Amino acid sequence: MDDVHIQDGLGRVRRTRGPTRAQDVWSLREDEKIVVQCNELGQPIKRAASILSTFLGSVARKGQLCPLNYTKWNEMLPSYKVELLKVIEKKFLLPKESHDWVLKSVNRKWKEYRAKLKTDWKHDGMTEEEVARVCPPDVIPHQWRELVHYWFSEKAQTYSNIGRAARASQTVPHTSGSMSYARRKAEFMDNNGREPGKVEFYKMTYTHRDGSFVREESRDIFDRATTLISERVGESSSSDATSHVEAQVLAELLGPERYGRVRGYGVGVTPTQLSAVGMYTRNAEEGSTNAEVSRLRATIEDMKDRHQAELAELKQNQQTLQSQFEHISSMLQRFLPPQVPDTSTARRDDDGAECGP
Predict the structure, then answer these.
(1) Which keywords does this Swiss-Prot/TrEMBL entry list (predicted)?
(2) How much is the pTM?
(3) Do residues 269 and 42 lie in contact, with contact meaning Cβ atoms separated by under 8 Å?
(4) How far apart (Å, rounded) are the C-alpha atoms in residues 122 and 143?
(5) Domain coordinates of the chain in residue numbers?
(6) What is the pLDDT of residues 53-111, one digit of tens each?
């Protein structure tokens, strides 16, 4: 199990197994914060992510921070969301890029809390007055009355029927449990040095620890997906092409993506965000390549300049040596006596002309 890093007000970090309950986080010293590591999409990973998720659940249940009398999260006043971010940042040290994930996660937990209250306290045959009369512990009374009034509205009844039908159509449950998709992927990457493929990740989230599928339906989907992908993807296809085919196949077998969601990525990730991160990653890779090319070009230019300098220096040395040689020759001519012809064995003819031997 991963250790949790807790940083104090002086920037000192200690490693610990970390708190296991939300109450333990609320009880941290004022100068202590749990360090949260996130992936490139702003999703928390490692064990601190689990602690943060548990804490966010407790935040979502506090009426002072997340009032229950709003019918939709996006109708809630921005001041509430600003305040809950301040509360979270007092207990956790996390990057600004994760704030969007935090708000979406609290939104989801807030909806789940409202649904649980309805399941626990509103039963068939009860009137609005009967339900509103008994306020659950830790719920603000006036918020409870407004929430109950909404449950009995025609609009809420319509949404309830739609939600019931959607849950009934979900025949293949996943097996991720409390571990988020982001954590599962990060764990896989730590062990394998790569991100899992879409179909590969589907199998990871729909099988038990022993490798058996949750249901035969999930096994059938995996087998059909594997067959279709092998038929459509050539051996020389790139990883991007394979990923695109996998997404198409899963959409055919599981249905289209829900609006604003990306299958296999969990809370907080949208198609636009994923495209932006992909573009950023590609740009970063291209930028790294371009920088490497620029460095190589600079190295080549530097080598050419040094080569030219060495040639110029060699030429200068040759000229210097030639000049020194000429100077030495001149000095020798000045100080050495001139050569005198040898006449000791020469004979002359009668006219005084020199003759040979």
Answers:
(1) Coiled coil
(2) 0.70
(3) no
(4) 15
(5) 4-122, 181-269, 280-320
(6) 999 999 999 999 999 999 999 999 999 999 999 999 999 999 999 999 999 999 999 99
